[in-house]
Amino acid sequence: VFPRFIFKYNKFAFATVIVFGLIAGAFTISQNSLPGDPAFVLKKALERTRAAFASQQDLPKIQLELANKRLEELDKIAKTNQSDKLAPAIQEFQNNVSKAAREIAGTENPDIKQIISESRKIKENTQQIEALGVVVGGTDDLDSALLELIQREINDLQVRTLTEDQQKIFLEAVDDFSIGDYASVLEKIWSLSNQQN
Could you tell me the pTM of the whole model? Predict the structure, then answer.
């Protein structure tokens, strides 16, 4: 009786409720979509909208979060043996990493603490996925951007005097650098810079 009453007396209100219900359903479905799914296009559009409204300082973090989200999707794809979705998922991950690297390089004062955190997650998630036999690759741009940040921080430290404890941290950072653990290097260098301030 109630739906007939609404339909009879207010067709516009009924149509509006139906349209909003369909839109909400589409958004919900898109959030669970994976690369290669038709609804993934809507998910990416929503992510682009979020990035469009972010501050310049937050863009590197947002792009790194999206790269981590792509790795989570890759993990799900690998564990459920959806091999037809592997290539699109890897490509999406690599695209997000490249965007993150450009944002890191192009931002004058990025939030280094957030970059360190998200970069560590990318490293851990990549290792997890590669343990499943999926070669992800595509992090060279991110490594280059992190190296650029490290260089900026080192240049800042060169004009300062380090205590004995700070020199030990600096030497640990050099060791991390030699094994390619750039997130750890950046974290240590950043902590030294903040201790000096």
Answer: 0.76
